[in-house]
Design goal:
PRTase-like, about 25% strand, two-stranded parallel ribbon, Rossmann fold, 10 strands, Phosphoribosyltransferase, glycosyltransferase activity, alpha/beta, transferase, binds adenosine monophosphate, PRTase_dom
Length: about 220
């Protein structure tokens, strides 16, 4: 088992899950007037839901909770609130995943307080039910064991965060490629390195230019 279990998610899966989510919303008989995307993870799911549900009004709110891959900040906070009048509107707040649930719960409260909506419901592609303190009104996939989902829209950020974590935890800044590959397998599993190898090289190059890591020749 890797130290941090990671599942690499493809854009095809995102389209499929957002379609399932849209079907659940439609089956409930409820149609939103406006979608609020939670930046940044909710952007692509929210845009896809607009398409599946025929919603043309899309605004956003930014909530910060997990600033680096697989590392949670202490408290979720609203960095940029919604600043439009949503009087009388049915609003759907959308994010990629409910982990603790703090981000979605906070975004919902913030929209209710700021913008006079008629009703606010919430939807996410995934919910990690054993850890979630808040369950959204709609979701497509229930996750029964905690995993870091490496979504396709933050592949570089994940790669940088994951390399940084290895550097910090080991205190070692000079690596040969073979060692770095083995460390990735130990920390994040084989699937991650196989599917994201190009991104890891890109991250190492970026970090090398910032003087955070040095890639050396392997001696044996
Ligand atoms: P939370 O407030 O804990 O529900 O999570 C807030 C946000 O952090 C989510 O909308 C994701 O963008 C990101 N996030 C949290 N946990 C995960 C995870 N297990 N996999 C991928 N992204 C996550």
């Amino acid at each position: 088992m890797p130290k941090i279990p990671v599942k690499v998610v493809t854009f095809e899966e995102i389209v499929e899950w957002s379609r399932t989510l849209a079907e659940r919303i439609r089956e409930s008989g409820w149609q939103p007037d406006v979608i609020v995307a939670i930046a940044r993870g909710g952007y692509i799911p929210a845009r896809l839901l607009c398409d599946w549900l025929g919603v043309s009004d899309l605004v956003s709110i930014q909530v910060v909770h997990w600033p680096t891959a697989a590392q949670m900040a202490e408290k979720a906070y609203v960095k940029y609130p919604v600043s439009v009048d949503l009087s009388g509107k049915k609003v759907l707040v959308v994010d990629d995943i409910v982990d603790t649930g703090d981000s979605v719960e906070l975004a919902k409260k913030s929209v209710e307080e700021c913008c006079k909506p008629a009703e606010v419901r919430t939807a996410t592609l995934q919910v990690i039910t054993p850890v979630a303190k808040y369950i959204p009104n709609y979701y497509a996939i229930e996750v029964k064991e905690w995993i870091w989902f490496a979504y396709p829209w933050n592949a570089v950020e994940d790669a940088v965060g994951f390399v940084m974590k290895i550097v910090k935890e080991t205190g070692k800044t000079t690596w040969c490629l073979d060692e770095l590959i083995h460390a990735h397998i130990e920390w994040y599993g084989r699937e991650y390195i196989e599917k994201r190898f190009g991104y890891i090289l890109y991250a190492v190059d970026l970090m090398g230019k910032r003087g955070l890591i040095k890639l050396d020749k392997c001696t044996s």
